Amino acid sequence: MSLKLRFVLVASALLLAAVSSSAVALPEAPSSAFQPSTSCGCHAALLEQWRPSMHAQAISDPLYLAKLEDANKATNGELGAFCDSCHSPIATMSGEQKTGNLSAVAKESVGCDMCHQVTGTEGATPGNVSIAFEPDGTKRAQFDDAVSPIHSTAYSAFHRSAEFCGNCHNVNHPVNGMHLETTYTEWKNGPYATEGIVCQDCHMTPGPGVTKPNPGKAAAMGPTRDHIYTMTFVGGNVALGDADLAEERLKAAATLDLEVEDTIAAGEKAELNTIITNVGAGHYIPTGLTEVRQMWLEVTAVNTAGEELMKERRDFGTVLEDKDGNYPAELWDATSIHSDDRIPPRESVSNDYSFTMSQGPITVT
After folding, report:
1. Which candidate in 58, 104, 168, 266 could, as Cys together with 87 as Cys, close a disulfide (CB 3.0–4.6 Å)?
2. Does 176 share its domain with 37?
């Protein structure tokens, strides 16, 4: 008897970077030290790429706000400043986060002028919003010959380094220091770092994976460059931002292979094996806070009568544990990782399934 096979790998990912920490404090700076995105008209194409991005929506993301409300209720409001430090660093530096009266530029979350006045990393290791910052109006980027009639410019090799992203995309618990998000570390310890492929090469390009060169202009009146990074910052954020680009990257992140016997007689034991390989992500899949970046594989076998012969689900992610050994724990209560069932870059996981074969074709989804 033959098996008719149909498989679906379900991955749902939303970008949430909860940050700041007791380890490194952001410098103080008034919101007037930052220009709003409306001042970036010379970079219209890049500006339009940024507008729907998760960087632009980090402080207004409904999922983030819902989780933040739960966190503040559980911690008497103490966790809000920790999280907002990365989701709206200008609000934190200006003190507006404490009052709740955010200026227009603070509401832009992680905006143009925020990133382009960063100078490096404070401390030995990127993470917990460890940015070194000079709010002097000079715009910093990866071009060593940039000239602007509007503002001063400076060359910054740091802007094309993974450490730039790691400043926010590594997060430790503000009280006990346990690792909550390790996206930068996952990259640093993996094959992509060894090969010199950095975050920007995949998340700031037109398509999935390393898509270089991407010729174009950074400014309308500027020269044509061999490569322009896009400002889409695409990840797995299918609910907000550019869903089409996010879905494209999710589909390119992993492959699903099936191993099964060609012919199985009715009444015999049918055995299946699935192999999921992380082929396209330079970090684990899923990465970050996996309670809001969910990935799972569900396999179901049904005969022609509609009878379910087998149904199994495997979830991929980290499970947090509190000091009393309870799991899953909320991130603010977590003291350790109970389990970590994620897939590192270029590695695979396999799953075995079995059921008794019935008459007629079987559909496996």
Report:
1. 58
2. yes
